Structure formats: C-alpha cells, structure tokens
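Holo prediction. Input below; ligand is adenosine-5'-triphosphate.
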Amino acid sequence: MTEESHRSPTGQPGADAGQGLWQACVEQLAQDLPEQQFNTWIKPLTAQVAEDFSKVTVLVGNRFKLDWIRAQYAGRIAALLEGLYGQSVTLELALAQREAIARTYVRPAAPEQSSTTALSEPSSGNNDETPAGAFRNRLNAALTFETLVEGTANRMARSAAMHVAGMPGHLYNPLFIYGGVGLGKTHLMHAVGNRLLADRPDAKVLYIHAEQFVSDVVKAYQRRTFDEFKERYHSLDLLLIDDVQFFANKDRTQEEFFNAFEALLAKKSHIVMTSDTYPKGLANIHERLVSRFDSGLTVAIEPPELEMRVAILINKARAESTEMPEEVAFFVAKNVRSNVRELEGALRKILAYSRFNQKEISIQLAREALRDLLSIQNRQISVENIQKTVADYYKIKVADMYSKKRPASIARPRQIAMYLAKELTQKSLPEIGELFGGRDHTTVLHAVRKISGERQQLTELNQQLHVLEQTLKG
Ligand SMILES: Nc1ncnc2c1ncn2[C@@H]1O[C@H](COP(=O)(O)OP(=O)(O)OP(=O)(O)O)[C@@H](O)[C@H]1O
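Structure of the complex:
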C-alpha cells in the first residue's frame, strides 16, 4: 500500500508494537468520543506504523471521510499518538486504495489543500444513522449490577435500585438518584433496566437522557405527533431518565414530563431518575414536578472511598483480562480521587502504556503513565490562576470572570475558565461557582458540559484549550 509498510527484522519495536500503539490510540478515542462519532469515523480506520514509530499512516475509506477526519480528528489523533509514544510522531492520512493517493500531512505543517477528486458520501454502513427504532430501549448491556462495584458510597442507592428491578411499580416510586459527575448514576439505571429485562423480557423499558426527552418533545410539537409521543412514553413499564436537571427552564418539556409521570405512576409503572442534585436543589423546575420527584425515595451516590476505588480498579483491569497488583491499584486510588470516570481514564492509560511498552504493570509504570495527571495534582493549579491565564489569553479583564456581563466575548472565556477549573482542580461545582462571582453550580455544570462537548467538534477550540492547559500545567 505505501512504501513505508516495513516488516520488523527482529521485533524491536516491530509491527505488533506498532499496531499496539494504534490500538491504544483507538481505545482512547473510543472512550473520549460519543459512541456514534467513534463508530462512524474512527472504528473503520486502519493504520500502518513505521518501524521506528516516527510516522503513522492512517488509511481512510474514501475522500469525503479523509477530509472530514483531517478537519475534525487529525490533531487529536496526532496528539494522542505523541502522548502514548512520548516523542513526536508524524501523522499521515491516506486513502485505503491501492494507489494511496492524496496523502495529507497534518503535522507539523498546516493541512494541505485536498485533492480535486470529487466528494463522495461516506459508505452506507454507518450504524449510527440507523433509525431510532433500532435502539428501542437504549440500554447498554454491559452496565449491570454484576459490573458495578459496591461500597459505602453507593450502597443505599444500589440496594434501592435492586429492589426496584426485582419488584417494579411497588416501593420507591419514583426512585431519584443524585450525585456528582462520573459516580455511577447512569450505570445504576442501566443495571435496573437490564435486570428487569433479564427477568421479564417482554417488559417495556426505556433509558433516555433528559436532553433526548427534550428533543422528543420539540419534535412532537413541530410535527404535531403528540399522540405517538404519548403512546410511546405512557405505555412503558419502566422509564429510566438521566440528568433531569436538564429540564430547567423548559416549560413545555416539564409539562409533558409531568403528564408522562402521572400516567406511568397511575398504571404502576416505575420511574427512575438521576440528577446532579437532590430534588429541592433543582433550579428552574416547577414546584409540582419537584415535589413529585421527591415523593418516592431519594438517594445520593457519594464519591467512592479508597477501598472502593481500589476494588473498582482491580475489577476493571480484570475485565480487560489484566491483573493489576493491589499495591498499584492502591497507588492509583490514592492519587485519583474525584470520580470513577477518572479512575477508568487512569486505568486505560496504564493498560495502554503497559501494552505499548511491553512492560509489566508496576507502581513505576503507573507513575510514568499518569505523569500528566500527577503533575497536575502536585502543582495545585488554582482557580484564580486559571481565571487570570484565560483572561490574558482572550484579552479580557480578570474582573469579567466574576462580573454579570453577558456578551459572548466575555461569557465564552468565562465558560472556558469554568471548564478548566473543573478539569484541573479538585474544586466542586458549587465551589467553582462561588469563585466566579457567586454563580449557581448549574451554571458551572452547563459551561463544563458545553465546552467539553464543543471541544470534540471544534478543532480550533480544542487547540486553544490545549495551549491553556499546557500553560497552566507549566
Ligand atoms: N461502583 C462502580 N463500579 C464499577 N464501575 C463504576 C462504578 N461507578 C461508576 N462506574 C463506571 O464509571 C463510569 C461513569 O459512571 P456513570 O456514567 O454511571 O456516571 P454518572 O454518575 O452517570 O455521571 P454523569 O453525571 O457524568 O453522567 C462508567 O463507565 C461506569 O460504568
């Protein structure tokens, strides 16, 4: 295919390690990107890795995809490869056709002009474009009670959820689970749905994120299909609805949800909800809905304690067919404290690093694999420092970080600073809100979600954030 497709003479580092590097990169992208994006754009890719790892040639199915990947993902892929390899890697994109024409260097130079070949649509095998009907219950079969580690932090929530799964429509209806990001709320919900379906395969179960519900309401409104909408939601046996704080300020949605809620409870169907705060802490949601939310059982999930973090790491490594020595799990658990999603990220880095370097997992290896993360903690980046750096970068006044001014030229850098404060410090959402002129934690959460979502789409923003992060980490 290309002239760089070397064979390793004596296996140093060799084709397998080269593919290991690419695999590690793909695995990281699988975690970082929304599933649909990953399946559509990244999964079909293959790569050739030069023997000395200096160059990775990613092969793409057609011209359209090549342009898209170059624009949307190439910078990120290159950065990941460099992060994993620890040295500069040149990334090339090439068509996966015999001629391998139109190679495009994306690093270090700016993207070249694409060739003049006519654009073609991506091949039709994009699963993500399958009609919504194909994902009827939207449950992830991997998220079960069996894969959820129990600890003090989630014991109450877990046992209430198991109770609901075993006897829906009885006690604890609705079940309202709240807690910070990445603590296993979504996992628990899916576990309820999966357990119920295992016992009663004919049960009508739906998992839905609150934002999707909002968009279903909007669609029903535009297309005047409220009958179908009602038929769909009011006929469920179990409704699992995630992150209901997203209903804030959406009056029409709240009304429809209220109707669905009443209909479901009347026919003894069960409702499980999650949120980032307890019902009375929800902002801009109608009182009658808030009191309904609180009318069953409300339970919190807390950040996992040390022993639980150790158990989670060991279990997750085992699920990847790897034994993580307890002392290493302890080292990681001591250093990664905030939530389970971050623990998973740390574990992934360690596994990738160990595979790629073909070394046993040890504390030393974990320290190397997590060097960025550990240095962040050691340097103790402060919110004030972030505000100052971001204000300088976007040429606004530091005082605008606390002000109530709303023009986009100010509001956006402020959101970026909030996002970085969440990412780079151990501060909670309310604490960050307080440091940004006494803003509500939901404002901070909104900013964090917005910027992290946009970061995956907008190359320019991603680069700016990268620069800011590097500056702050020193
Ligand atoms: N107790 C646990 N045992 C095993 N895995 C867990 C546990 N808690 C969380 N996880 C895993 O951590 C990741 C994050 O959990 P989840 O998505 O459920 O968090 P969340 O509380 O819904 O967060 P968010 O509010 O950000 O959506 C998932 O991959 C989940 O499987």
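Residues 1-12, 98-133 have pLDDT under 50 and may be disordered. That is the main takeaway for now.
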